[in-house]
Every structure is written in C-alpha cells, then in structure tokens.
Amino acid sequence: VIDRVTEARGDLVALVVAQSAAMEYYEKIVDEMFTHTARLVDRLERTGGVTYRMRSLHRFIGSALGTRTEVLSVLHLLDKPDATWDDPEMDRIYNELRAEFDLLDRYHALEAKLRSVQEALEMVLSVVRDRRLYVLEAAIVVLILFEIVLSLVRVI
Predict the structure, then answer these.
(1) pTM for the whole structure
(2) How far is it, in rounded angstroms, from Cα 128 to Cα 39?
(3) CA quadruple 126, 132, 136, 141: dihedral positive or negative?
(4) Helix, strand, coil shares of the chain as percentages rounded to 5?
(5) pLDDT tens for residues 31-85?
(6) What are the distances in angstroms from CA 68 to CA 4, 20, 29, 58?
C-alpha cells in the first residue's frame, strides 16, 4: 500500500489503525447494548410488557444515545484527513487502508445496530409510558368514584 515511508504517511497509517482500534472498542460496547436490548424486546414479546423502571430505561436510552454521539465524534470516519485533500497519493493510501480494515462497512454496521437499539428502546419506552398512563387513568377514575360516593354520603 505504501511505496515509501514519510512522516505524513506514517501519521496516516497511525490514524487508520487508531480508527480500527476505536471501532473495535465501540463494537464491543454496542454489541452489549444490542444484547441487552434484545433481552428487553424478548421479554416484551413473551409477557406483553416490560418490568423495567422508567429511570433505568431512561439511563439505558441515554447511554445508547451517548454512545452513538461518541462514535460519531471520536471516529471521524466520514471526514478525510487534510493531508489526503492535498496529495492524491495520500488519498489513495488512505482509501486503501480504510478498505483493508473494512472501516466503512464496520462503521455502517455499527450505526445500524445503534439505530436498531434506539428504535427498540423507543418502542419499549412507549409501552412503559402506556402502562403508566393506564395506571394514572385508573387512579383518576377511582378518585372520581370516591368523590361521587362522598357526595352521596353528604346528601344522605
């Protein structure tokens, strides 16, 4: 891939290797999130509900969003380094190294998993909110009935 070694080319190789290492780090984190989300969805499928506290769910959603933001900001996979804009040979080396490490495919797979986790969590959150709204509506009905009973007792 590299015909001669220069400092700029060494920096470029280091950047791609660092991106690959960072990608592996985030792949592990996202795989854990994906597994956790799959368990939530499985529980929802089996029981029709999720026994999950709202705060814990919000934390998990926050973690998923934070990871997605971190992946975008840390990896910089969509931005080419400045050196590649000025030198066609550096651009070629960069593109070949990215292809060799499958960075773009891995990045897209990571993004797809993160989107899937986010969509599943939004659905689970919706189910949890619906259950809470049902309880709230039931409490309101009970309070109205209690008020009616109190009014009847006062009349009698």
Answers:
(1) 0.73
(2) 15
(3) positive
(4) 85, 0, 15
(5) 999 998 888 888 888 887 776 677 887 888 888 888 888 887 877 666 788 889 9
(6) 37, 16, 11, 15
d(CA 149, CA 36): 47
Other beta carbons less than 10 A from residue 78's beta carbon:
8
Instruction: Kindly state the helix (H) or strand (E) to which residue 150 belongs, with its residue range.
Output: helix 103-155
Phi, psi of 51 (to 5 degrees): -90, 80
The alpha carbon dihedral of 37, 41, 46, 52 has a sign of positive
Reported as a single tens digit per residue, the pLDDT across 4-23 is: 888 888 999 999 998 899 89
Contacts of 113 (CB under 8 A, 6+ apart): 30, 31, 33, 34
Dihedral angle over CA of 119, 123, 128, 132, nearest 10: 120
Amino acid at 22: A
107-141 per-residue burial string, b: 16 or more CB within 10 A, e: under 16:
beebeebbebbbebbeebbebbeeeeeeeeeeeee
Class of domain 7-128: mainly alpha
Instruction: Note whether 61 and 141 are within 8 A (CB).
Output: no
